[in-house]
Amino acid sequence: MKVMKLYGIGSVVVTGTNRGIGLELVKYFSAQDKDTKVIACSRRLSPELESVVKSNDNVSHVELEVTSIDSVQKAFHSVSNIVGDHGVNLLINNVGIRTSTDVGTFICPEKDLDDSFHINVTGTHTVTRIFYPLIKMAAAVNPNLPVCCARGAILNVSSNLSSIDDASDSFCVAYRVSKAALNMLTKCTANDVIKDSVVCAAIQPCSEKTLSDIESALEIVGMIEGCSVKHNGLMIAEGMEVIPC
Description:
This protein has 245 residues and is an alpha/beta fold. The protein is 44% helix and 15% strand. The protein contains seven helices and eight strands, in the order αβαβαβαβαβαβαββ. It has an eight-stranded mixed β-sheet with strand order 3-2-1-4-5-6-7-8, sandwiched between helices. Helix 2 packs across helix 7 (213-226) and helix 5 runs parallel beside helix 6. It is globular, with a radius of gyration of 17 Å. The two termini are 25 Å apart.
């Protein structure tokens, strides 16, 4: 179901938009429908993101540091002023870090684990928790829409490295452990939000290094289009394949 074409999406909030996939998602949403309010969140405004904001009236930049509750609360108030009583239809928690690619549990520094959890898990939780009233509001003012990303949705960007079933080595320990925790956070969040007709899922961009940021963003768009109530709490990949956690 092509929800964006059928229903449109009133507003989209994307974190981690200075570069990479987050930036490409902002570009995509800003070009698809000029009635969609696209809110790009990042710690600072990169030249690339600034260019997108200046050239698109429907794109706003909001400063956001996910590790700071004060910053997230300020961002919430800024976003509230932008979307008004319509709320936020889609939150994409894209921000994250990958501290190292070392192989071996015993050579993984504690700081790498702490930093990875602080941003990839706690940061995602903080943004979702504080922004949730806006997402709940959007779902409530669109009662005739099915449970999908056009009504109210939270999508957490995870990784194929998070799958415990597929963990055959100890590559990139801090990152994959934090993303596994993010999957559980996604499931717990999904259990709580579905009663409000909001869907929450983890999405896995393609792991192929040859794929460009634009191509990865387009894959994510496909998952956004296809995400529905049956995907609540799951990790999904290209073609809406459900990935074991």
